[in-house]
Amino acid sequence: MNALIRSMLAITRPFSQRLGPCELNGMLIGALTGFMFSVAWLMGTAFTPVAYPLWLYIALVLALFCWGALFALLCGPLRYAPSTVAGPLLINALLTSTLTVYLCNLSGQPFLFFLIGMLVGLLVGRVLCRYCRKPTQRSKEG
Asked: pTM for this one?
């Protein structure tokens, strides 16, 4: 297990030096969501756009699955504190999965869902990183 974690860290080290943790988590969530949605698309609906309530349910289920998988990875082998990871990771998963499934449903190209998911995850993660790093501005009273 330690060898697997070390190899994953060695592979992602060039990206982790340039990207923040929100962006990396977003890319992982988007890639996993895009891959799983493409498998569901190819196995079940056969190149037919999915109707509104169904794609939203699929996006929410995939968001919870991705949140659980990354939460287990971050809090287990990587030893992050659950209280610091749970909230931001859930917001990232919900936004990334919903936008990924929506855009993939619009495109209709299941072989590109993986790349669409990574791009959406990168953009959502970048927005979340900038929002979280932004210092709170307090108005001067008095």
From this structure: 0.82
CA-CA distance, 67 to 29, in Å (whole number)? 8
Taking only the tens place, the pLDDT of each residue in 97-115 is 999 999 999 998 999 999 9
Q: Which two tokens stand for residue 26?
A: 């977003």
Q: Is 30 exposed, middle or buried (0-12, 13-18, 19+ CB in 10 A)?
A: buried
Single-letter code of the amino acid located at 81: A
What are the pLDDT digits (tens) for 2-27?
676 677 667 667 766 778 888 889 99
Q: Are 60 and 97 in contact (CB under 8 A)?
A: yes
Q: Which residues contact 49 (CB under 8 A, 6 or more apart)?
A: 105, 106, 108
Cα–Cα distance, 129 to 95 (Å, whole number): 13
Among 66, 37, 55, residue whose Cα is nearest residue 125: 66
